Amino acid sequence: MILFPSAKINFGLNVLNKRKDGFHNLETCMFPIPLYDVLEILPSSRFCFTQSGLDTDCLTKDNLCVRAYHLINDNYAIDPVYLHLQKNIPMGAGLGGGSSDAAYTLKALNQLFDLKIKNTELSEMASFLGSDCAFFIDSSPKLCTSKGEIMSKVKIDLFGCYLKLIYPNIHVSTKQAYSNVKCHISKNNIKQDVENPIIMWKNTITNSFEQSVFQLHPILSSIKQSLYDEGAIYASMTGSGSTLFGIYDKEPHKSFGLKKDYFEFICAI
Asked: Domains of the chain, with CATH numbers?
């Protein structure tokens, strides 16, 4: 069985306050994009996990695909499998690649072993692995609140638009991003704002992490401005960084003069 876990971007991200459990309450709109890892799962005589592509720089036991397998196995006593992950989505980039890999592992095991687990239960299990993992069970545009695991549908009209991503190979850890962010209650309503025409987004939809992350890495602010300079209707950092993206009404060109270790991705939405 071969699956293609997708990346996501955030349209707006308001960090509201810190919770008693140490997490933060937030509100954001998550939107899946056609940038994929590749996940292969096969029956096996013993459990085995291998990986190719980008280096995730973590121990095998800590990989979210491995943790997802053990979570299912602890609850349903499934047979061993061989898992192979071709990693294409950059890590520490705010694109949710690891969370997507975990969610797709849960979905694949559910299908492979005909466990008949409903999506609501899969979402609960995914949330145990990470706050934004549950989004990838359905992987459609959602307004996400609480820690990111409480979701509701949202209508976003980006028909005919193009997306451009630039990841400047700067890893921003989630812990680092949250330790410097300033919490605030936004006067704007993200659900209402993202359902407005995109031409209105620039003045209403913001990411709470930009201020602190841009201070640590000023090049990110410059990249965001360059996206606007070349015609983006809306540009932002996604998640806690450090990927910047722009939404365009016509296909943008690849940027000139970018360093060789930058990751750039352009697609129709």
From this structure: 2-153 (3.30.230.10), 162-268 (3.30.70.890)
